[in-house]
HSP20 family protein (Desulfobaculum bizertense DSM 18034), 134 residues
Amino acid sequence: MPDLRLWSDGQLLQLREEMDKLFDGFCSDMGLPSVSCLQSDEMTICREDERIVISQPLPGYDAEDIEISLTEKVLGIEAQTKSEREYSHFSRTLELPCRVDPKTATATISSGVLTIRLNRTAAPKARRIPVIAK
C-alpha cells in the first residue's frame, strides 16, 4: 500500500488556484460566469486578473470604526462600535492565497459591505549568497 502524503495549506491553495484557472478558461469559452471566487462564511474573496478583491459584510460599522492591517500574506480586520447601550466588535485574520502589495491596497465601505482591493505581487526571487572562506 502506498504511503499517504500530507499536503500543506499552501499546496492545497495552489492546486485550487490552478483548478480555478482551468475552469475559468472553460467558463469564459462557454460564456459562463467565473468560478474564481472563494467564499468563507460571509467573506468573499475573488481573483480579478492581477488583483484580489475581498468583500466582508460589516453592517452597522462606519469607516472610522474599522481598522485594517496588512502584510504581504496576512490581512487583519478589526471593527468596533460603542454606543450608550451597545458594544459591537468584529475581528478576523486571514492568510491570503498569494502575496500582495500592501502599499497599493485600498478599502471602502458602502451599504454595510467592506471591500478591500489588493494588487498581487510575484513571489520574491531567491538570492544567491556567496560563501567566503576564512
Notes: The first helix runs from residue 9 to 30.
